[in-house]
Specification:
By secondary structure, the chain is an alpha+beta fold. 51% of the residues lie in helices and 13% in strands. Strands 1, 2, 3, 4, 5, 6, 7, 8 and 9 form a 9-stranded antiparallel sheet that branches. A hairpin with a 7-residue loop joins strand 4 and strand 5. The chain is globular, with a radius of gyration of 23 Å.
Length: 411
């Protein structure tokens, strides 16, 4: 038993290391990561999709996402296998919904875990990752069925209502009670305020895709990611299945296609960035307006976008980052500028609301442009970039702010 735990710990650390190397663009590390983890993820994709071709598509989609987002993996929030299982589950469910599927019932016996209280151990999975799967044994059959329909099938409350022939509000109540039982089982002895209980349960619903994430605050995003990692235990108990030979080449081909498509706009983006660096804020509004195709202010009743250019304090003409918030879509585009980063340090983004006193972290500055649905900008908010130790601020507050900017509306 001790040797097994030591082997699992070594494998878990290996996956974490491979993910961090992948974040640095190491193709060999990525290939090794695929060899080590692809069977586990493909088994989960098959379990969700129930169609081999669709599962292959989901697996390739997941590994493209892993390659492009490995920089977001934080080993302090959970192990690498759990992080990858979350990605695979979400990508498989998204494909399943895209291709459509009826609400005809699969047999309940196919959904319920064979032995929830003692799930099979997966290579590289820790006791923490499997904790939720064990606690599923504390639920009755209906509670298990609802949560497994949400996790493995991606079913909505409305679809569950059709299957179980119950009103939607009744399904909501049953799901809430099941989540409360599950949370109590996992956190025995932990006493929390009622408000925190409500936040935690709402985060669990967002993690299962039962509620939209569009209005998430940074704190709510953290809670949702904690639940996603817990639910990853349901993916960890699925038996691995070896993917077809040559799958890695298919993943690499997809990555090349995506990056080639992006490169078509790279020259225009670079020109825009450096042009923005030499313009004042007043002129920048005009540039952003023409670049994003905005209508004149007189034709709109309210701003459709907010933006901020974060300039270096020591050189006010040098931008470190541009952010644009789309009011209608509820998403923010983060465009980082080339910054020199020393070994052992990280650049971290901070936001301080106009009516707030303390800034809060928006995460590390990404290496490339990304779209985030968890960042909400409002006019008057202050954004900053600070230099921190590797991995981010150890205190939860900016250590050495170097760049600052103010959110403005595009009129």
């Amino acid at each position: 038993m001790i040797q097994d735990r030591e082997a699992e710990s070594v494998l878990g650390k290996e996956l974490d290391t491979l993910l961090m190397l992948t974040a640095d663009g190491d193709h060999r590390a990525f290939a090794t990561l695929f060899d080590v983890a692809s069977a586990k993820l493909f088994g989960l994709a098959l379990r969700i999709c129930r169609d081999r071709e669709l599962a292959i598509d989901a697996l390739q989609d997941a590994f493209v996402h892993i390659w492009r987002n490995a920089w977001r993996f934080n080993p302090e929030r959970g192990q690498g296998l759990g992080w990858m299982i979350v990605i695979q589950r979400n990508r498989a469910v998204a494909l399943l919904r895209k291709h459509g599927r009826g609400v005809e019932a699969r047999r309940s016996g196919d959904l319920l875990l064979t032995s929830p209280a003692n799930p099979p151990k997966a290579r590289g999975s820790s006791n923490e990752l499997l904790a939720l799967a064990r606690c599923m044994g504390d639920l009755d059959d209906r509670g298990q069925e609802l949560l497994l329909l949400a996790y493995y099938e991606g079913w909505t409350r409305e679809e569950m209502a059709i299957r179980l022939r119950a009103p939607v509000h009744t399904i909501k109540s049953w799901l809430r009670r099941s989540l409360m039982t599950l949370r109590s089982s996992m956190e025995r002895g932990v006493i929390t305020a009622r408000r925190e209980d409500e936040r935690s349960l709402s985060a669990a619903e967002r993690a299962l895709g039962l509620v939209s994430r569009r209005e998430e605050t940074p704190r709510e995003e953290v809670l949702r990611e904690e639940w996603e990692h817990r639910f990853a235990g349901l993916g960890a108990v699925i038996a691995p299945v070896q993917p077809p030979p040559g799958m890695l080449h298919g993943v690499e081909a997809r990555i090349e296609t995506v990056e080639a498509t992006e490169s078509l706009d790279a020259a225009e983006e670079r020109a825009f960035r450096w042009r923005a660096a030499t313009l004042g804020l007043g002129a920048l509004v005009v540039v952003l307006g023409s670049f994003l195709g905005y209508a004149p202010a007189g034709l709109r009743s309210a701003p459709e976008h907010y933006f901020a250019v974060v300039y270096e304090d020591a050189n006010p003409t040098r931008p470190g980052m541009i952010m644009q918030f789309d009011v209608a879509e509820g998403v923010t585009t983060v465009i980082p500028m080339p910054l020199e980063q020393q070994i052992g340090t990280s650049f971290e983004i901070w936001q301080r609301p106009a009516d707030g006193e303390r800034p809060f972290s928006l995460g590390l500055l990404p290496p490339r442009a990304v779209v985030r649905d968890s960042i909400v900008l409002r006019p008057g908010d202050t954004l900053a970039i600070s230099k921190e130790p590797a991995g981010g601020s150890p205190t939860g507050q900016p250590t050495l702010p170097l760049f600052h900017g103010t959110v403005r509306a595009v009129e």
